[in-house]
Amino acid sequence: SAPQSDDLAQVKTMLQLCVDRYFISPGKSNTARFRRGMSCNYGPLGMELRRNLLEQWWRSVSSSRDQVFGISTVSCTMDGDSDTGEGGGHLRMVEAESLKQMLQQENISKEQIIQELQSLLQRAPPLRRNLLQGALLQFVPMLELVNRKLPFGLAEVGLCFEPSDGSGRLTEFTQTSLVWFCSPRTSSQWLDHWARQRLKWWRKFSLSPSGFSISNVPGEEVIAAASRGVRVLYNFPWGQEALETLWSRGDAELLHVHNGVRSKLQCRNERKSVPQVLSITGNVDCGLMAFLFNSLQQLEKKDGKQRLQHRKVLKLHPVLSPIKVALDTGRGATVELKQVCEGLLHELMETKITVWPGYLEPAPTSMEQLFAKYDEMGVLFSVVITEDTLETGLLQVRSRDTTIKETMHISAIMNFLTRYISAAEKI
Amino acid sequence: SAPQSDDLAQVKTMLQLCVDRYFISPGKSNTARFRRGMSCNYGPLGMELRRNLLEQWWRSVSSSRDQVFGISTVSCTMDGDSDTGEGGGHLRMVEAESLKQMLQQENISKEQIIQELQSLLQRAPPLRRNLLQGALLQFVPMLELVNRKLPFGLAEVGLCFEPSDGSGRLTEFTQTSLVWFCSPRTSSQWLDHWARQRLKWWRKFSLSPSGFSISNVPGEEVIAAASRGVRVLYNFPWGQEALETLWSRGDAELLHVHNGVRSKLQCRNERKSVPQVLSITGNVDCGLMAFLFNSLQQLEKKDGKQRLQHRKVLKLHPVLSPIKVALDTGRGATVELKQVCEGLLHELMETKITVWPGYLEPAPTSMEQLFAKYDEMGVLFSVVITEDTLETGLLQVRSRDTTIKETMHISAIMNFLTRYISAAEKI
User: Which of A128, A216, B3, B112 makes an SS bond possible with B7, Cβ 3.0 to 4.6 Å?
Assistant: First the structure.
């Protein structure tokens, strides 16, 4: 079905908000990249949101389980590395300079050109398209680590590349990867287990969990290397897109990477079997976009003069919100006010709370405008320090989610904020 | 002067330790990459050490200052992006498939090949060699953010690529970048300020601070774009290498990226000047290696039978240590012991303490061997749970730095470890 005009308006609103509020850099090609779920140029808020997302992913797959180990592999392989098979080969990095020099030689024949090109291609390092191959290569040393006992997993986050539509454009995205090694008997159960776990994880941080779902990959779309697949989908305004894909891949690729030497790969179970490989890969850039769309609330509200106001609030989960606290002076900062703000900022930063130095920005025309800005940035609390604060020590704290403004003494603010924010992280 | 054989032995020892203790993956080409300060395939410990290092870098340049904003830019630019000048151009990504297809055409002429290659090169996206260009492009929207007031900075961590010696080999490394924009009047002071700050940072986490130093870049090595430079050096066994480089770059590159439109770039100071650019770039992979070499202590000690033992201890700073606590059973884990370990592991992980599941590994031949292994891994505390623990609740905790073993009740261990580790983080 064709997307409704409401949906298109929502997409437009979201993209504009992301540019206006420093999630992504301005520019048509950058917005297009973002919209397609690729890596793009992120501003401070987008960068911080991605950091938070990756931190949570890492915690959920790696640091909460004793059998998952983090690794980090190179993005382009070199001579001396094993063949990377399916994962590489299509995109290669060439030194433009040496190609140009060759083309400038006057007496070079067609055959020489072809020969040189072929040798250049052979030497040119391939760029990875996914993180699977790196994990398969690292399987052997890690197997010793767990005393050859299954199951265990290798987790990684890294940049991957994809050739796109032949226009010379290139897709670059940050992939999350968990490669899970288990016994043949249990692989199907593990696939279901991980699919449920992953769905639960996405929903845990969402405002409307029903936007996220899982679905078996239909037979005709199952890749040759896999026997079965599950996708974690998000229902974007333009349709469903996969955020994560889980494949049950058997043992063929693992054997291939290790030249078929079964003895190296065998585990300490009854049958000394070569483990089955499950791959669970996600696109962080696409996931980030899903959470942005999922958390956008558009409200209509009458202002003091009975005019209809459109309020946009990015209700990101407290753990994901790139900025927890904004510090502002409301009406332009004097030197004294700025000092108070800076003091509070450093105190908050020491407790690892991300703070927005709103007092550096141009002054807003009204307090309503100020809060509207911070709502669009998904800031949990806006703290307003005024001349009054210098005299009485009182400041105003406004909550994104309740929109309630509280007056509080400056000595109480640290405790108030840290308590709320650390409670949110415990969920 | 030629390196002494002692120094070479130290390098060999270090590289072997890194492979044996899961800092890097085995393999000759991988070790060579690591040794050259490039990104390589990291095992769980190397990956975690790099994470800790980046976290500390991030905290020191970005989250502790109100005028530093984090960004994240793409590693290959696309049509529609601005010219990236000096930073790109040399390395381009080509789709090997389309090149191969062209070469297989039978009736293609030399001229056609040359033409097609030239157009392919033009379309092929360039890979970045540093993070400077991304920050210069993002300068304009960020300038609005700070109300056109100087100084401010843009911080980023990202993968960069370098062509190497023409052999088709490629250098891939993770760069840290702070691009600092300041008024012309203050740029020289800022360069000195940042050089001192950075040196202080490196020394803060080192065992022997004198290994780190700063030095002005000699006139003949100053790059064309810069007027002055400072390097942060580490004295490796094979000689000094730069971990970070600071350049005072003037305003030419910033103007070039923005097509010379001064009005867009002018700041709100007396003279409405275009800011001066300082770049502070580091190689994380090289920095990681510096801390490993810096923290390796080799001790000789007589064992119970008066035999000389060589003990290697990786005395990494507690904040950098990839693993804070190892949980072990000493002599093979029964189901019950494993359950106790798992319980403690999850409790520790919830407080974000990294734990090593030593009870999954093959059992060591002696307790001395066990502690020697954890010393080589730089583990701060080894906790040994035995059959005794099941009966009396008592376990043993051994400290890497004091080598003292304490007997402690299992109910006291969490408090003991979290207190020590959070105190270490406050430094």
Answer: B3
Contact A113 B109 (CB under 8 A): no
Indicate the pTM of the whole model. Answer: 0.93
At A87, the pLDDT band (50, 70, 90 cuts) reads very low
> Which among B29, B79, B89 has the least Cβ separation from residue A78?
B29
| Residues 6 or more apart in contact with residue B12 via CB below 8 angstroms | none
pLDDT at A81 over 80: no
Cα atoms in the 13 Å half-sphere on the side-chain side of A44: 26
* CB neighbourhood size of A188 (10 A): 15
Contacts of A39 in chain B (CB under 8 A): 72, 74-75
Q: What is the dihedral of CA B411, B414, B416, B420, to 10 degrees?
A: 180
Write down the H helix ranges in A146-247.
187-204
Distances (CA, A) of B69 to A48, A413, B39, B143: 10, 24, 25, 11
Strand ranges in B4-100 using DSSP code E only, listed in sequence order: 68-70, 91-95
Strand locations in A217-329 (E) = 228-236, 239-248, 276-283, 296-302, 308-314, 325-328
Which of the residue ranges A134-143, A264-273, B223-232 would you say has the lowest mean pLDDT? A264-273
Q: Residue A129 corresponds to which amino acid?
A: R
**Residue B167 pLDDT exceeds 70:** no
Check CB contact under 8 Å for A95 and B360.
Answer: no
**Calpha distance A238→A3 (Å, rounded):** 6
The phi and psi torsions of A163 (rounded to 5 degrees) equal -70, 150
